[in-house]
Design a protein that fits this description.
This protein is 23% helix and 23% strand. With 315 residues, the protein is an alpha/beta fold. The protein has a single domain (58-314), classed as Metallo-dependent phosphatases (Purple Acid Phosphatase, chain A, domain 2, 4-Layer Sandwich), CATH 3.60.21. The strands form three sheets. Strands 1-15-14-13-4-5-6 form a seven-stranded mixed β-sheet, with helices on one face. α2 runs parallel beside α3 (116-130) and α5 (202-214) runs parallel beside α6.
């Protein structure tokens, strides 16, 4: 496998790729593409679309974002909580314009409200934006999602169906994991946890092994926390989780968030991709989201928008 990674955002570079097929302007690795506008960026975009028509079409396209942290509260440091509302709105418009088959949010969808009623209000408001996506939506629980709320309260007030689950779609098997457990096995909820103490309990590991064993399809795993050994952002029993993934022989990639920075690693033949946090930075121009194309030959293309980097993983 080979990885081709773009440089971090180069604001002076006009890049190829598509403009998401919408009427809004989207920032693609620093180049602004506005459909219908004549100019260098528009010409580059048009040429890239013409060239891309000769490329293999993806077997499945996924819209993806991480660490939304929506809350109706004042900015704290680099986290602009209220701005996440318009950032998610733009991301979903992009996903719809690009005809994504699936949309995934990788946890910390909300932040940490002082009380349950306020938190549910935040969750319903941001989920109303996410639910504009015209396809299936997947949710991974983040530690902030279940700081004030219980897991069941998050599920009951969003489009989420369960804390961990799996499904088949477009020739692929998708697994969503939940690492929001303390070392003593107690589930996060009601401000009872430390964000540095994340674990996947044994019963979920047993479920994961059985789930992967019964599937013959290429598998993609989503969760909030990282599975590389990168404390304090990694799952404490990450090595045990990776052992299960590697033993299955059919897991291609793991997508996560949590550390707020883009990252890539290959461990045991599996690709670990961390997305940049959407909440970081003021205004819509500091959004971060991606279109992830999965190809039949095992290749994965990550088209980053706004502040999210591109990556190309060859099969």
């Amino acid at each position: 496998m080979k990885l081709h990674e773009s440089n971090p955002i180069d604001r002076n570079r006009a890049d190829g790729r598509q403009d998401c097929g919408t009427r809004r302007a989207f920032l693609k690795r620093g180049a602004l593409f506005v459909p219908g506008v004549v100019g260098f960026a528009a010409a580059a975009s048009s040429a890239a679309r013409a060239a891309s028509s000769e490329e293999a079409k993806p077997a499945l396209r996924i819209g993806m974002m991480a660490d939304v942290h929506y809350a109706d509260r004042q900015t704290a440091g680099s986290r602009h909580y209220r701005d996440s509302l318009v950032k998610v709105r733009e991301a979903v418009e992009c996903f719809n314009g690009a005809k994504a088959d699936l949309a995934v949010e990788l946890g910390d969808f909300i932040d940490a409200a002082p009380d349950v009623a306020t938190e549910i209000g935040h969750l319903k408001r941001i989920d109303a934006e996410f639910s504009r996506f015209k396809g299936r939506r997947l949710y991974a629980l983040g530690n902030h999602c279940v700081h004030t709320l219980t897991k069941q309260e998050f599920i009951d007030n969003s489009g989420m169906s369960a804390a961990h689950y799996s499904l088949d779609m477009g020739g692929f098997h998708f697994v969503v994991l939940d690492a929001n457990y303390r070392s003593d096995g107690v589930a996060y909820g009601r401000k009872n946890s430390r964000w540095t103490d994340a674990n996947i309990p044994q019963d979920q590991l047993d479920w994961l092994a059985a789930d992967l064993r019964q599937s013959k399809k290429t598998s993609i795993v989503f969760l909030h926390h990282r599975l590389e050994d990168v404390p304090p952002h990694s799952v404490k029993n990450a090595a045990a989780v990776r052992k299960v993934l590697e033993a299955s022989g059919n897991v291609s990639a793991v997508f996560c968030g949590h550390s707020h920075r883009s990252h890539y690693a290959e461990i045991g033949g599996i690709h670990y991709c961390t997305l940049r946090a959407l909440v970081e930075g003021p205004g819509i121009e500091n959004g971060a989201y991606a279109l992830v194309d999965l190809f039949e030959d095992g290749s994965i293309r990550i088209d980053g928008f706004r502040m999210q980097e591109d990556r190309q993983i060859e099969g």
